[in-house]
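Lab notebook, bench 4. Still working through the backlog of constructs that have no structural model yet. Next entry is a single chain of 517 residues. Request: give me the structure tokens for it.
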Amino acid sequence: MKNYFKSFFSLLFGLCSVVLVYPQLHLKPQPVYIQYNSFNSSLPADMVYKIIPDPYGYVWLATEKGLVRYNGKEFTLVATGRFEDVISIYKTNANILWLFAYTGHTRGLNLNNHQIINTDSLYGLDKLKLSGKPFLVAMQWGTNLLLRRQSMKNGVCIELDNRISYFSSDLATQIATHYHLPQKVKSEMDTILKNSNTGIYVNNDYLIIGNKIFGIAGGNAHAKLIFDGNDYHIHEYIQAAVRLGTDLYLAGIKHLGLTKINGFFSVPKSQQVIENILPNEQITDLRKDYLNNLWVSSYYNGIFFFPFSEAGTLHYNKATSGLYSDEVSMLKQYAGHGTVIGYNACADFISGGKHKRFLLPVSEHLPRLLSAEKMAHNWILLTRLEAFRAHLPGSTRFIPASVEPLLPAERGIARGYKNGALLHDIFYYAGGNGVLTIDRLAKMHRYNPAYALSENKNTCILPLSEAKMFIGTVRGGSVNGIALPYLSDDQFYSIHTFDSLIVFCTNTGVYTIKEKR
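Model written out:
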């Protein structure tokens, strides 16, 4: 018997449903991200040059303090043997992480067992006269690793199987030949190699030259131009690019920052939307991990982490989205009609691209809008102590024309709102001194049955019919005035229905009883 009335759910995932409201908001959102730096985390350096997620879930960072490993909880500086200021890193097909120091030296890290490899000695790099210039870019073609050095047109080729290294002349010609690039692009590479330390980037998907992105399919396949920055008024060098779904993310160290082109891979250019997510941030690298999370590194500001759920988790605020305030007290979507957003003494009504804002004529302090109920030709807006009527003109289905205080039809009614529910065009709610009702004509009355009054303050209500009503209080709950067994000392917060269950949310957990039909 006790279990019949007291079934506690430790997890209520089955009782929850997520409603995506942002398609109806018609407001500009900000993606949600986490920033890690040396002040708010264990990241030892704020200058991060490169990021590489590995297949085991670790994220590796090239920083001014050395190689850093992130395990999902903390950042750890990895001992690599007198090796600091790792300016670049590259992962080969054999799962070896190459580390390139500012001094020009290299190290290797076996990602399968985290053993350090002396690559300078193993591949004969220490026999070359490298003049202390660091390697900035690496690309693997088959079993050969081609390295680009700072301010040098010539590269270094490493034959990984034969463990030998040698200078490779005319890097631009080699890249152009390998990817079958036209002479015009080869000339652009010559200029970049001569005048800049950035401007050339390659990963498994893309080859970036200046402000152009080429798709590469590996091997000796022809590189295909998929993005020309000139078409988007982007003229600076692109540091990195990532595709997530149908969107293209770009990184740059000047004005570009982190930029997203919504719909780049799915709709014509005229329908694409450019969004500056981190404008003017000096972004050094951009990667996605095996879970499609986005990792962004920067000069001086550490790293930014965008969870994959960012596609559905967007931040709307006053500064970027046009909200009335950053303190939002309620948000409710009305299927097929629109959305209402509540603040302190204010309500936004949004429908079909139209947006109208009303300031509530309140008298209380901090009058947060807690509920908005649509009934016939009226909206009922409720704060903690007051009620308002927003009139809908005959030709309007959602956005009201005006807002005015809703006065009770009887004296002695306290309009304070705690919790309520709609039943048959009548809104029942737990008010300041009992249960109140508001009918379709926006008339407020006291609900008269004796069981609607309680020695304890009412906190929530669930009307199942005109003849059956659950009421929760600060101490216990009842149905039609009959106390619910075993819940006499619980403080009720809300009462809901879920399938055939009545669900009580209290200060000691969640309880259910099965509703008899």
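Notes after review: Helices lie at 2-5, 22-25, 119-122, 171-178, 183-195, 318-321. The two ends are 19 Å apart (CA to CA). Flag for follow-up if needed.
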